Amino acid sequence: MNIKRTLFALLFAVCVIASCKNDSNELVGVVNKPPEIKSINAEPAQIGINQSSTLSVNATDDNKDELTYLWTTNGGCFLQGSDRKYAMWKAPTELGRYECLVTVSDGAEQVQKSISVDVIDVPVLKVSHTVIDFSYNLLTQTFEIENNGNVELDWTVQTKSNWITITPANGTTTDESDKITVTIDKTNLMAGEFIGVIGVKSNGGNRDILLSGSKFIKPEMVYVPAGEYTIGSDDGDEADGPVHTVSLEGFWIDKYEVTYLEYVEFLNDLFRKGELEVGDCLNGKGVKRDDKWLLSYYNVFFEPVGVDSPIDFEDLTFTVERGYENHPVQFVTWYGAQAFAEYHNKRLPTEAEWEVAARGRDAFIYPWGETDPNHYICNANDKIKAPTMVGSYSPSGDSPFGCCDMAGNVFEWCSSLFISYPYDASDGREDLSSTDYRCIRGGSFDAPYMAVKCSARSYNAPDFFHISYGFRCAK
Question: CA–CA separation, 264 vs 270, rounded Å?
């Protein structure tokens, strides 16, 4: 019995060994095959100095082994992908033929193949601008095309925008620069920021140039005819009443709130005349005239949104941050509003004129009528947290006489002192020399909806400036 058991054990061991041999390719005679490189490419195969070519290799492995890649070269350098199927090779500064070698390995064996890239004299396109900024009322700008190679550069400049004209539209450049003039026609562009793309096509590379600018809202005035009008309210704050009738002569009032662009042009003209002083004021920088602060601005732009002014002062010039030219000016004092109005042979509206322009003949609760405010017809209740471009809610939020943004956006300074209603122009409230509180009307972007009622009255000191304080003019 012991002999049988021993023979059985030996037979079992032989079977296990045989089974192990079947599980091993090496033991059963299956030999590992090396990877095979099917193709190798360089695109482009001819480049200029410091230019780059994309290299690629297509390799397979019959054993389905995972493959690794390694690129090497006898000149230039790899910008990326030296251990991948795709690699970007940058040419050196010397002309010649360079070999790029790829090694493909399956972990046990490896194969290699090289490809040549010729570094030759080629045209190399360089443009002086990637963005052309048409600031304010500028209509033409130029950029330059330069050839950084030693071969003629043939170029064409084109755009799909019919309001952009380019002269000349094509040419040939060797080692000098060609100036290209870009002219824009703002006639049919909507107010606000406009953007276009200028494409430079050449045998030395292609470039796109972004054209960015603004069309500004043209200041307009609307007429309010003479007559008797109802102002005041008995339903709101006690200071808003009583309801009473005023008799007004006909007057003109701005359709829009005064914008940053308008105010900056005013500041620049006064500064050139030596009438302004720029210096430190509360929490930032300010502009002073005749020892009175007109406006405050800050050097740090919009941190957080809505807290700062987009006005900057550099190289003895006031400018507006791109995209805010058509927004209502903020941080302006009553003195600053009054000075702007006088500069333009206008004045600030009286409190009664402002309310009539907002309410119309039917004495609406809101400029648009009796329906409650919402974020589709005015910028208030801190829904957006910053002023919007003037006229953004027109015509749905306009007053009966066609004034925009008389509810929300920014509070608006009036000429009148804050004296109790009924309104009486002869009781001293239109004394422009007084330093007492002045009326502000209309609510603002960060004011509650109750503050945008046409009858809602508020006030502040004439030298006070705030994020939500702006104005419009009358005459």
Answer: 10
